Amino acid sequence: MLAMATSLAAQGIGLDRVAVGPLAIHDHVVFDYHFRVLNDPFPHETKEGYAFDGADVAMAIDWHWDKTQLQTRLRVTPASRTHFAYDQDTDFEPNTNFTHGNEGEAKSRTFGVGQSLPFFSLGRWGAVGLDEDFLRQWTRYHQVTTYDLNTNPALASNIFTRLISEQAILYELRSTLTLSERRQWDGWTAEAKLGATPASIVWLHNYIPVVLAATSTEVYGGSAHMALSRGLGKWGAGFDLDAGRYNSYHPIAGFRREQFSVALLISR
Prior knowledge:
Elements: H1 2-10, E1 13-36, E2 43-51, E3 54-65, E4 68-76, E5 81-91, E6 98-121, E7 127-150, E8 158-163, E9 167-185, E10 188-207, E11 212-232, E12 235-248, E13 253-267
Antiparallel strand pairs: 1-2, 1-3, 1-13, 2-5, 3-4, 4-6, 5-6, 6-7, 7-8, 7-9, 9-10, 10-11, 11-12, 12-13
């Protein structure tokens, strides 16, 4: 380890700060797909929604390579949390529209990793950079209300409660162009960052319960970040605020994410 650290230092790579703490997040995701099903001549609409609200653990690692300042971010769910989720499929057969769905409790875990890369400075207007983020969100349904609804009154509709084990895994690879500004005064550091995401890819894998149904879509969006911290000797404390909204480019493969988070970070 000492030899590795010496080698990295010789290449100009060094660690500047490590910050870790709880992150409270509001993260709502909705899918809305319109497509045809194999061997079914009638169109279908599939909707899925996940309220990934709760608390995660966040970590930010500030480091440098020569004179380039970099940041690596991690986010994990320490224990699976319970939240609301739903999925439903509507078959638009003439005179017999039929909807089957589940809604209720689900358990989930989130893992995320991100890397910030600086591009160039605009002087007093701030600095332009790139944020690359990868997100994996795993969900398993638990106790749900299942509904089978028919528009044809001659056919029965059913609503009942049951335990199911269907799983869904969401993957997202997001590229965001950023404009940021950082100011320091009297031991305080404040940062503001605006982000524009022209290209993000989202994959959704459903296991029902063991057959994999995979879909994907391309996404655009925007985000805002604010941070305030203060040094306390060798230690530091601060909080980060993040908000973002993202939408699909494709109306037949709809996607929407609304996200807001607050993190309290202790650093050294």
